[in-house]
């Protein structure tokens, strides 16, 4: 009986040791820092954003129309950092979260805000009018960002931009959910791609995309930190 008890104790201790080792390993992995990340961005925040550097190449240009009906070219933003996303003009899931992150980022930029442009390319070919982009921008308060451009245009032109930025889009019908690659590009004032981040979301009780307020705020802060790093 004594031997059995001793054996059970040894097993219990071994289990505890394994649990502690695994916990330590998981904690260490969580603190692994991706290489090339701006020093101002904490490791935990970089991991939350899936932030990573990309090979330096000129950001593919486009000539589309913004939410106000104004012709808009990416080249017109030279001299400023561009934070570029891809949004659905009718999206009720992840895109509104990205919109809030942009609004928070612009606030966190402070005096640097004038050196940063926030832009998005439409991924909804069924709702591709400038009026659709404006309606989304108003609904989600993006019009409060002075340097905000939600660009859209003919479907063939949009598809070219999607292809150039490796954005996959599934748009089965005008009333169906649009499934698309969700990514933010950070473009230097010289027009070079520098970083990408991958927006995230969980499903709330009502089935809509959701992020805790703390994570939303962290995302906005992270976008601001990366943009500030790229400002010349």
* Average pLDDT level: 87
3D shape: globular
Specify the number of helices: 6
Write out the CATH superfamily name of the largest domain: Glutaredoxin
Describe the protein's architecture and organization.
It is a single chain. With 232 residues, this protein is an alpha+beta fold. The protein folds into 2 domains: 1-30; 38-230, Glutaredoxin, CATH 3.40.30. The protein contains 6 helices and 12 strands. The protein has a 6-stranded mixed β-sheet, with helices on both faces. Strand 7 (169-170) and strand 8 (179-180) form a beta hairpin. Helix 2 (43-49) packs across helix 6 and helix 3 (94-109) crosses helix 6 (213-230). The longest helix has 29 residues, at 2-30. It is globular. The N and C termini lie far apart (75 Å).
Descriptive labels:
single chain, 232 residues, alpha+beta, Glutaredoxin, 6 helices
Please outline the helices and strands.
Layout (H helix, E strand, L loop, with lengths): L1 H29 L12 H7 L2 E7 L4 E3 L5 E3 L7 E7 L6 H16 L6 E7 L7 H10 L8 E4 L3 H10 L4 E2 L8 E2 L3 E4 L4 E6 L4 E2 L5 E2 L2 H18 L2
Helix pairs in contact: 2-6, 3-6
In short:
The chain is of the alpha+beta class. Helix content is 39%, strand content 21%. The longest helix has 29 residues, at 2-30.
């Amino acid at each position: 009986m004594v031997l059995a008890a001793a054996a059970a104790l040894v097993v219990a201790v071994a289990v505890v040791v394994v649990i502690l080792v695994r916990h330590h390993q998981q904690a260490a992995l969580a603190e692994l820092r991706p290489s090339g990340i701006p020093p101002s961005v904490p490791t935990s925040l970089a991991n939350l954003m899936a932030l990573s550097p990309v090979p330096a190449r000129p950001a593919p240009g486009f000539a589309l129309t913004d939410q106000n009906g104004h012709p808009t070219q990416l080249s017109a933003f030279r001299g400023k950092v561009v934070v570029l996303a891809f949004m659905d003009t009718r999206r009720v899931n992840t895109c509104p979260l990205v919109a809030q992150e942009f609004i928070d980022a612009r606030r966190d930029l402070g005096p640097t805000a004038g050196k940063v442009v926030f832009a998005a390319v439409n991924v909804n070919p069924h709702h591709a009018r400038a009026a659709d982009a404006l309606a989304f921008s108003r609904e989600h308060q993006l019009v409060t960002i002075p340097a905000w451009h939600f660009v859209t245009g003919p479907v063939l032109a949009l598809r070219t931009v999607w292809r150039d930025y490796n954005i996959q889009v599934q748009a089965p019908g005008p009333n169906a959910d649009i499934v698309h690659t969700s990514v933010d590009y950070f473009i230097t004032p010289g027009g070079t791609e520098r970083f990408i981040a991958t927006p995230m979301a969980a499903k709330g009780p009502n089935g809509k995309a959701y992020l805790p307020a703390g994570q939303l705020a962290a995302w906005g802060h992270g976008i601001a930190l990366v943009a500030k790093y790229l400002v010349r």
